[in-house]
Each structure stands twice: as structure tokens, then as C-alpha cells.
TrEMBL record:
It comes from the Bacteria. The lineage of its organism: Bacteria, Pseudomonadati, Pseudomonadota, Betaproteobacteria, Burkholderiales. This is Esterase-like activity of phytase family protein. Coiled coil: none annotated. It comes from Ottowia flava. InterPro entries: Phytase-like_dom, TAT_signal. Residues 65-372 form the Phytase-like domain.
Length: 386
């Protein structure tokens, strides 16, 4: 990383104090007033498309092919963006891109200005070997205790090669710090009919507003939890797990029911893919879930849902989720991206908050994973959240 990128010590102390104060404030409110379930009739936010842009196919930076952007995060202290590539160390070692984005109100093409590339390293200090990880989700964390800014990232692993999914924490230079202890349900591979399915594991990551926890979402259902990619059939329940950032242990989990696959008309034949592609937290009681579906005849669809965490049961100790017995978290549709005004909908897999807009509203930025496929694009889109 360039010398200008890391935070200065004084700045770290200031940010740590600020984060600590917000954490104490949130804790005090929680103790004084138990959270009440949200009203099912409460107004939903409205999203308005502000800007969008796409990268030319084959864009390179610092000797790496840019593509597969599946995780996104913004650092308010430096106004820098971080994007995780899901390249399994094939085109270049597993990595994170650092860049700047123009203000969506400037009228400029909404495309990155590249700053740096971070090579992710394992516990041995070396870049990850080919096919040893499958990076998918990213979150930028400010540790209130140390003032250090770090990156959290997930790997889907490789179930066929008996490599389980994982959640890691690294420095802004990519140096490995620790691995989190995931529930056994998510890492139980090698047993027939149990555990995660190949290429269907940890796909979304979202920090809680107080910075004390992180939620990690499975893309699809575990083998024991339901259907697997049958067009038009009721899908299985997906697990979204909360982990404590101090202990590294899971302390809560919810069940989430995606839409039937794929969105739109029933297509009984042909390849189909669907599931959770990203999550984000607008406040302590709500989770936003981005669902993405693809069918060979209808193309890509993407929808954003709001989930009420106050009405979700804890499934952490439940070995098998059954739709008729397990209460899924209630959800409401916020936006169908096919109706957002975007001229093209590609494989949206990344989502993050950006700088506050001149209106005072939040800015939501989404990005697509082009799968290193020349027929797809890396696409950025910015929305005003009113």
C-alpha cells in the first residue's frame, strides 16, 4: 500500500474514540429500551438511480486482470473504496482492489480511478495458491479498541476438494490476522446429505452499525435444509449467521427464504442459478438482502429485500431447517433492479454504503461480478436512499 493510504496514529485514536462512543451509546439504548418488532406496514425506503458505469472488458491494473468483483466496502476516513475479486488465484493471486469513485452527482461516468492492489495472504504469510480460496464477500472494520482498520473477507472454499468455507481478517496490507470459528453446520463437509453445497456458501457480509458483530450469509441452503436449484420449486432456507468480532464466535443465526427460482415465469428446463448475493445493514434491527437469479432464457434478475431481525427466530442450534417448522425472517421487497432505470442488469454481487449525498440521504453503491466472462461486464451503480 502507498504511504499515504494507512491512517495516522492520531487519526486512528480519534476514530477509535468515535467508534467507542457510538458503541456505548447503542449499548445504553438497548439496555434502557427493549427493541420492539417493526410494523409490517412501516414505510419502505425509496431508491433512485443516480449514476452508473461499466468497465471495458479486459481492464488491467498493476499486472492484474480486473474482474470478479464480489465484495465492496467504503472507508469514510480516506474516501477510498475496496473491492474483493473472486479470482481463485487463477489470473493473479487472490486480491482486493483499492480505488476512488466520482460523486454520483457530478455527472461523470461512474467508474473507478484505481489506486492500489492488495494481495491477500494466508497464515503462512504467502499469497494463496491456485484454487485454494474462493473470495466472495468483504467488509471494512474499524477496531474501536486499537483504532486499527482491517478487512474481513469470506471464502466459499471448495467443497469438492474438501476445503470448507471461511471468514478471515487481514490488515490493509493483506497480512493474515485470524480466522473466525464458524458454526459446524456451515463447515461440515464430506458427509452425504449434510453441510454446504459446492459454490453455494458464504456470499454476503455485513457489519452491524455498532461495529460489534458481523453477519455472514450463505448463498443457498445447506444439503439438509432444502431444495437445490430446481426451477420453480420452493427453495430451501438459507442461514445468515452473526459472529462476535471480539470472540470470533457465532452467537445468533436466522433462516431466510429466497424467492422461487428463477424470478419471473416458470422455466422447467435449462440451467438455473439463484440465491443470496450480498447483505447490508441500514440499522441494528434491519438487514438488506440482495437476491440474484439467472436462467439461460431470461438472463439475470436481481431484487433487494428488507428483513426484520426483530421477528426472526434464532436457528443457531437447529441442525436441520424445515420450512413448515422453522420461522423464516419476514421480508419485504424494496427494489427490483429490472425496474430501477439501469439500461442493463448483470450479475450484481457487491453492495455498500457510500458518502452521504448533498440531500443528506444515504448513497447505496452496487457492483457486478463479470465472472471474467467477455460476454458480461463489471458494472457500478449508485442509488439515493430516501
Amino acid at each position: 500500500m502507498p504511504d499515504a493510504l494507512p491512517l495516522t496514529l492520531s487519526r486512528r485514536r480519534w476514530l477509535a474514540a468515535l467508534a467507542g462512543a457510538s458503541t456505548l451509546g447503542a449499548t445504553g439504548l438497548a439496555a434502557a429500551r427493549p427493541r420492539q418488532p417493526r410494523s409490517a406496514t412501516a414505510a419502505l425506503p425509496k431508491l433512485r438511480l443516480l449514476a452508473h458505469g461499466s468497465l471495458p472488458t479486459g481492464t488491467e491494473f498493476k499486472g492484474t486482470l480486473i474482474g470478479g468483483l464480489s465484495g465492496l466496502s467504503w472507508d469514510a476516513a480516506t474516501n477510498l473504496w475496496y473491492a474483493l475479486s473472486d479470482d481463485r488465484s487463477r489470473h493473479a493471486p487472490a486480491r482486493v482492489y483499492v480505488f476512488r469513485l466520482p460523486s454520483p452527482a457530478d455527472g461523470q461516468p461512474f467508474v473507478p480511478q484505481w489506486v492500489d492492489v492488495i494481495t491477500l495472504r494466508g497464515p503462512d504469510g504467502q499469497p494463496y495458491p491456485r484454487h485454494s480460496v474462493d473470495p466472495e464477500a468483504l467488509a471494512l472494520r474499524l477496531d474501536a479498541a486499537t483504532g486499527q482498520t482491517t478487512l474481513l473477507w469470506t471464502s466459499e472454499g471448495d467443497i469438492r476438494a474438501r476445503i470448507p468455507p471461511s471468514l478471515q481478517e487481514v490488515t490493509l496490507e493483506g497480512r493474515w490476522l485470524r480466522s473466525f470459528h464458524l458454526p459446524r453446520q456451515l463447515t461440515d463437509i464430506g458427509r452425504l446429505g449434510r453441510g454446504p453445497r459446492h459454490n453455494d456458501t458464504l456470499e454476503g457480509l455485513a457489519l452491524t452499525p455498532d461495529g460489534r458483530h458481523v453477519w455472514a450469509a450463505m448463498e443457498g441452503a445447506l444439503n439438509q435444509d432444502g431444495d437445490h436449484l430446481t426451477p420453480g420449486a420452493p427453495p430451501g432456507l438459507c442461514r445468515i449467521t452473526r459472529l462476535d468480532l471480539v470472540s470470533g464466535e457465532a452467537d445468533r443465526q436466522i433462516a431466510y427464504l429466497p424467492e422461487a427460482r428463477p424470478f419471473g415465469p416458470l422455466m422447467p428446463q435449462g440451467s438455473v442459478e439463484s440465491g443470496i448475493s450480498e447483505i447490508l445493514m441500514p440499522d441494528p434491527d434491519l438487514l438488506w438482502v440482495l437476491e440474484r437469479a439467472w436462467h439461460m432464457t431470461t438472463g439475470v434478475s436481481a431484487r433487494l429485500y428488507e428483513v426484520d431481525l426483530t421477528r426472526a427466530a434464532n436457528t443457531l442450534t437447529i441442525d436441520t431447517l424445515r420450512p413448515r417448522r422453522t420461522r423464516a425472517a419476514p421480508k419485504r421487497l424494496i427494489l427490483d433492479l429490472r425496474q430501477s432505470g439501469l439500461p442493463h442488469i448483470d450479475n450484481f454481487e457487491a453492495m455498500a454504503w457510500g458518502p452521504t449525498l448533498p440531500s443528506g440521504h444515504r448513497c447505496l453503491v452496487l457492483c457486478t461480478d463479470d465472472n471474467f466472462n467477455p460476454l458480461q461486464v463489471t458494472q457500478f451503480a449508485a442509488f439515493e436512499v430516501a
